[in-house]
Amino acid sequence: MLAAQCGACAVCGDPNPEHLDHDHRTGWVRGILCFNCNGGLGQFRDSPTRLARAITYLRGTTWQWVLIHPGVFQMCSPTRGRPPSRHF
Questions:
Q1: Do the beta carbons of residue 50 and residue 41 sit within 8 Å?
Q2: Residue 2 has what DSSP assignment?
Q3: E strands of 8-63, at which residues?
Q4: Rounded to an integer, what distance in angstroms lies between the CA atom of residue 18 and that of residue 15?
Q5: What is the pLDDT of residues 13-28, one digit of tens each?
Q6: CB atoms < 10 A from the CB of 56, how many?
Q7: Between 20 and 30 A from 48 (CA), which of 3, 12, 41, 68?
Q8: What are the boundaries of each domain within the chain?
Q9: pLDDT digits (tens, 9 = 90+) for 48-68
Q10: pTM exceeding 0.70
Q11: Following DSSP, what letter does each residue of the chain receive, concatenated?
């Protein structure tokens, strides 16, 4: 399996991965991953939906101060055009 992956992590491509990844629902082996990628998938509970949301978040939620009136700034998302939620 490692040879089929050219000796690299199946997700990020780092050399010498050491963690055998498996589907927690079925138990089937998916590939060999580095420590960080294996742990990351676990943190996202192997959910493609959670991973897709994380990708969307990384691509477009850089909040920035926007001048809305002289001397008045508001935090806005360039992709969403609205201020951040006050609820944490």
A1: no
A2: T
A3: 19-22, 29-33
A4: 9
A5: 999 999 999 988 899 9
A6: 11
A7: 3
A8: 1-46
A9: 999 998 888 787 766 778 888
A10: no
A11: -TTTTTTB-TTT--BS--EEEE-TTT--EEEEE-HHHHHHHHHTTT-HHHHHHHHHHHHH---EEEEEETTEEEEE-TTT-SPPPS--
36 near 12, Cβ under 8 Å? yes
Q: What is the pLDDT of residue 13?
A: 97
d(CA 30, CA 32): 7
Residues 6+ apart with CB under 8 A from 35: 18, 19
* Structure tokens, 33: 């991953």
Domain 1-46, what fold?
Answer: His-Me finger endonuclease fold (3.40.1800)
DSSP state of 35: H
Is-contact 32 14, C-beta < 8 A? Answer: no
How is residue 68 written in tokens? 């809305």
Q: Is the confidence at residue 29, as pLDDT, over 70? A: yes
